[in-house]
Every structure is written in structure tokens, then in C-alpha cells.
């Protein structure tokens, strides 16, 4: 049995809360590793948080009483900034980041931990310089993908990795909203997408959701009215109503209709939800759209950015038995779509000037070389700088979709320029 298989088997056999210890032991045994650290990206995607109190001491076991002392004594267990660290560079880079230490004769390799294109953290492995040869980097990259999948499965049975993602305490409403989200990014041969919400630790009512099959990608972007628990409950009802209708095999207009009925039955028009529903045919790039409220779509094609206008239909839950009609558009290989909630373009600067659509278009153009998974965070950082110290009074949601298409589809040959 080769060493790659040995480590992968050890991961699969590990207890949900013991993945770090098992992978550290296996990497020491099979790769001569001298230190192993696992960090998870926080909800705001600003820092990488160490997993477990003993994350900075190579996975060695410590008793419960010594755990706090170990954390305090190990500088490596402190959070590191994504935008100012080698770990952060690895989180956003296509390849591992290698940092040699000539004094100790070691090399530290930082590799992104991902789940089907969704980057969730970074594994840092320190090895003797003599061990860095052959297929080391491809093997470690593969192991980090396996680790990502095991973390996703383990989160059903332990809070350890969810706790590591928190740079501060979540509000109850934010807790409810984050549990509803599918992830931060997704990638398939036909497309790549990424999305992000701010403020991450006190979300109001915005939400995004996606689901892909062999033939379709379905996206929904939700803007629920209100704030706090009321907004979270409203968004949960609307999103789960749409999911229920989608999983019953209904078309997009019927999904909107049944979600509309569910919200109206509960709130009788006193509360409603704006929602954009889109379903992409992976074979052809044909897009079915139901726009029921405020989330808006911009398309970048051959360097030109323009809004995609659809008939603005009533938000979900405003009136009883509202009918919805689907519209159609097309995307081509190389197109980039951006969806933003009103919390983005309605944000005001300290001087009271509205951010507006023109600034959003400039930001989309300026970030055109970034992969889709990184665009939402980059745009929301710019929005934060524009806002200054003024706190957000509404959610700001950005979703970016890069369309590659299929080589045998009607849209022509596919192109890919995102992360591998």
C-alpha cells in the first residue's frame, strides 16, 4: 500500500473530531512531517482560525487541563489574516505556497483545503528539506481534497470545525442563515461560481442557494424584509419552500408560486420576500428566469458590462395566489454574471452618497481577472472601504457566475480561467 493510500485510509477511519490528529500522525509517519496545522476560514473570510486548542503543536495529544495553556503558548495557533500571510496566499492561489526555512533546514507547504471547489481552509505541513521531492506537492494537494470531504462529512457529528470558523460570536439570526447556505463557491466543467454575505456575523435576511444536476444549474438569491430573527425565519421559510418545490420536480414559475403561497399563508401579506430564480441549461446556456423583487443581474461579455432587465414581478408572499411567468435569456462561454442585493447598490458613504450601479459596474470591471470565487469578497471589501466607519444597515450580498459551457453545446467551445 503506497503512502497516499495509507493517509487517505487513516482519514476515512478517523473519528469526526480527530481528523487533525490522524492526518498529522499519518503525515509524520509517511512523509516525515515535523509539524501539521489546520486552519479554517472564518465566516467573514478575513482570517484563518486554528482548529482545536493543540492545532499548533503538530497534532500531539494534550490533556484537557493543558489545552488552554498550549493554545496560549503556541503563536502558530493564533489566527492569521488571509490577506497578509503565506497561509492566506495559499487559500486563494491555484497552487500550494512553499516557504523554506534555511536556518532549520525545513520547508513549510501551505495547501488549500477544498470541497468541490469551495475552499474552506488551509493545511500547513512542515517537512525536512530532503523530503520535498518527486510527487510531494500533487500528493499533498490530493490529500487536502480528501481532508475537505472528510470535514464536510464530520460536520454532521461535531461542532469542532464550525467553531473554528468563528472569529467572534454569531448572532442567532446569522447562525440560522449560515446553516441555510450551500457553501461559498462551487465549480463544474460548465461553470464556476462564488458568493458572499456581509455583515457575516449579524446577517439580516439575504440568502443565496444553488443546486446542480447533470443537465441544469439552479440559482436563487433572496432578500427578506426585516431584520434579526424575524428576517431569518422569513428567509428560511421562503428558501425551504423553493427547495421543496424544486425537489418535487416543478418548473421555476411553479417553484415561485408555491413559495409565494407558503409565505402568504404564514404572514398574510404582512411580510414578503424578494427573490431571483434562475435555471441554466448546461448543454445550451439557455437561462430560465423569474424575477420576483430586488436582486439584480449584470452581465460582462467581451469586456462590456450591462444590466439584464427582466419583468419585475411581485415579491413572494405579498398577495394571495400571485401568478409568476418565466422569461428566458442566454449565456455564452466567457460570460460573467453578477447578482447583487439592494444592500450593495443602496449603501451610502460617510458623506451620504449612494454607491449606485455605476460604482458596482466599475468594481466588476476592475476585478475581471479574479476567478469567480474571489470576486464577491473583493467587491464587498471595496464596498466596505467606500462605506468607511458607517455600519451596514442592510445585508450586502454578491454572487458571481463564470460560464464556460460545454464543448459540444450550442454555445461553442468552453474556456476556463478560474482556479483548478
UniProtKB/TrEMBL annotation:
**Species in which this protein is naturally found:** Streptomyces nanshensis
Kindly give the SUPFAM superfamilies that the UniProt entry links to this protein.
PP2C-like
Report the domain of life of the source organism. Answer: Bacteria
Protein name, per record: Phosphatase
Give yes or no: UniProt keyword Hydrolase.
yes
Question: Mind listing the UniProt keywords for this protein, alphabetically?
Answer: Hydrolase
Xref: PANTHER family: STAGE II SPORULATION PROTEIN E, STAGE II SPORULATION PROTEIN E-RELATED
Give the lineage: Bacteria, Bacillati, Actinomycetota, Actinomycetes, Kitasatosporales
Indicate the segments forming the PPM-type phosphatase domain, all copies.
Answer: 188-403
GO molecular function term, any single one = phosphatase activity
Claim: RNA-binding is one of the keywords in the record: no
A Pfam family it matches: SpoIIE
Amino acid at each position: 500500500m503506497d503512502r497516499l493510500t495509507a493517509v487517505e485510509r487513516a482519514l476515512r477511519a478517523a473519528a469526526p473530531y480527530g481528523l487533525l490528529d490522524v492526518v498529522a500522525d499519518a503525515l509524520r509517519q509517511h512523509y516525515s512531517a515535523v509539524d501539521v496545522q489546520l486552519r479554517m476560514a472564518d465566516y467573514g473570510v478575513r482570517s484563518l482560525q486554528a482548529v482545536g486548542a493543540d492545532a499548533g503543536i503538530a497534532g500531539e495529544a494534550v490533556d484537557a487541563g493543558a489545552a488552554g495553556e498550549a493554545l496560549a503558548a503556541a503563536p502558530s495557533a493564533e489566527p492569521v489574516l488571509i490577506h497578509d500571510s503565506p497561509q492566506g496566499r495559499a487559500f486563494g492561489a491555484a497552487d500550494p505556497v512553499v516557504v523554506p526555512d534555511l536556518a532549520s533546514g525545513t520547508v513549510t507547504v501551505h495547501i488549500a483545503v477544498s470541497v468541490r471547489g469551495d475552499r474552506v481552509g488551509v493545511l500547513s505541513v512542515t517537512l525536512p528539506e530532503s523530503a520535498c521531492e518527486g510527487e510531494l506537492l500533487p500528493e499533498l494537494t490530493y490529500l487536502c481534497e480528501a481532508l475537505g470531504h472528510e470535514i464536510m462529512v464530520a460536520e454532521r457529528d461535531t461542532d469542532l470545525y464550525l467553531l473554528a470558523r468563528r472569529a467572534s460570536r454569531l448572532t442567532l439570526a446569522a447562525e440560522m442563515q449560515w446553516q441555510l447556505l450551500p457553501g461559498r463557491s462551487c465549480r463544474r466543467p460548465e461553470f464556476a461560481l462564488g458568493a458572499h454575505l456581509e455583515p457575516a456575523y449579524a446577517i439580516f435576511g439575504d440568502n443565496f442557494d444553488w443546486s446542480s444536476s447533470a443537465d441544469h444549474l439552479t440559482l436563487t438569491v433572496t432578500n427578506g424584509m426585516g431584520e434579526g430573527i424575524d428576517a431569518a425565519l422569513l428567509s428560511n421559510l421562503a428558501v425551504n419552500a423553493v427547495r421543496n418545490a424544486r425537489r418535487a420536480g416543478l418548473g421555476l414559475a411553479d417553484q415561485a408560486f408555491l413559495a409565494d403561497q407558503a409565505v402568504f399563508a404564514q404572514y398574510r401579506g404582512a411580510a414578503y420576500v424578494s427573490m431571483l430564480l434562475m435555471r441554466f441549461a448546461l448543454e445550451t446556456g439557455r437561462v430560465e428566469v423569474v424575477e420576483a423583487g430586488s436582486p439584480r443581474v449584470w452581465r460582462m461579455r467581451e469586456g462590456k458590462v450591462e444590466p439584464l432587465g427582466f419583468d419585475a414581478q411581485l415579491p413572494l408572499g405579498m398577495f394571495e395566489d400571485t401568478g409568476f411567468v418565466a422569461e428566458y435569456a442566454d449565456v455564452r462561454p466567457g460570460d460573467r454574471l453578477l447578482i447583487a442585493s439592494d444592500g450593495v447598490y443602496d449603501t451610502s458613504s460617510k458623506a451620504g452618497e449612494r454607491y449606485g450601479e455605476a460604482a458596482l459596474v466599475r468594481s466588476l470591471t476592475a476585478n475581471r481577472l479574479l476567478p469567480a470565487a474571489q470576486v464577491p469578497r473583493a467587491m464587498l471589501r471595496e464596498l466596505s472601504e467606500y462605506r468607511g466607519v458607517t455600519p451596514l444597515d442592510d445585508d450586502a450580498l454578491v454572487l458571481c457566475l463564470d460560464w464556460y459551457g460545454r464543448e459540444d453545446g450550442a454555445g461553442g467551445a468552453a474556456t476556463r480561467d478560474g482556479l483548478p
